[in-house]
Amino acid sequence: MLMTRRVPNSLSIAIDAMADLMIATTTMAAASVGLATVCGWKGYPRSGQSTILALTIAVSAMFAFLFYAAGRLYWARWIPDSAVIAWSNLTPLFAAAATGWVFRLPNTPLWRRATLAGLLGLACLAAVLWPFLGIWLRPTLPAGHKVVRGITRQTSWATCSPAAASTFFRFSGIEATEAALIPLCLTDASGTPTLGLYRGVKRIANQQGRDAQAVLMSMDELEKNHAWPLLIMVKLPEAGFRESTYVTEWGWVPGLGHTVVILGRNEEGHYAIGDPAVGAELWSAADLNVLWHGDAIRLVTD
């Protein structure tokens, strides 16, 4: 029988776990203030046209980062810290640089520069506080603790990630409830950020003398893998699957992310899946090839 170690389900764990985010957000806030100050000095760029160009690049980079790079799991491979969701957030730095350069716009009244700088400053503040905003503005409903055949079932559609992480830990010999994982994963009523999920898993793993590792795997690597369980992020692509069996029979919504656990692989080549929405399932390699895009989290010895 698999022996498990229980993680205390208490408010003190959630409060203690916020310390890493407080340090990271405070540091990023200080760096943003410093960058805005430096960019607002009469230094580089020296000409008005160069200042406008620098401002344009900063604002463009801010939006490009938000749409194409913010919150991706690959940041956890480069910054393996529980507060990677804050350390990897470059949006406030771009906004801060733009705030400083706005004050140096040529031939622009002070009130216009002050208004633009104020708006960019608010964007910078919101970006710095982004890891907290969701749980402040959209708190989750009280979590339950329903376990069926070893699979933790999600309390609501928004808590699939903490529920999947609970199953992931149970099959790793650690007992952690969905309720304990929700605040650690920064889950709100709209769901769980990917780096929030990594954070929750890493915090619990570290408490138990283990560590969480974000990995990118190919199907070939998955077929050769023998270290189970594996926590994976899955999603049905929006293009070409609206009338597929994944929609009509499985109930998947194209473009909506989900989290499940691969528990192992049988002799027929099918993968045992712990799905917090429906329970235990068997997926073929073809199913994974459609639904999974390589992102995974596994436990390693610390």
Give an account of the 3D structure.
The chain contains 13 helices and ten strands. It has helices at residues 11-40, 48-68, 74-78, 84-87, 91-102, 110-128, 130-137, 160-170, 178-184, 194-207, 219-224, 245-248, 285-291, and strands at residues 5-6, 146-148, 151-153, 174-175, 210-216, 230-235, 257-265, 271-275, 279-283, 292-301. The chain has two domains: 12-137, no CATH class; 146-300, Alpha-Beta Complex (Cathepsin B, Chain A), CATH 3.90.70. It is α+β, with helices and mostly antiparallel strands and 302 residues long. Residues 10-14 have low confidence and may be disordered. α1 packs parallel to α5 (91-102) and α2 (48-68) runs antiparallel to α5 (91-102). The strands form three sheets. It has a six-stranded antiparallel sheet. Strands 1-4 form a two-stranded parallel ribbon. The chain has a two-stranded antiparallel ribbon with strand order 2-3. The two termini are 24 Å apart. 49% of the residues lie in helices and 17% in strands.
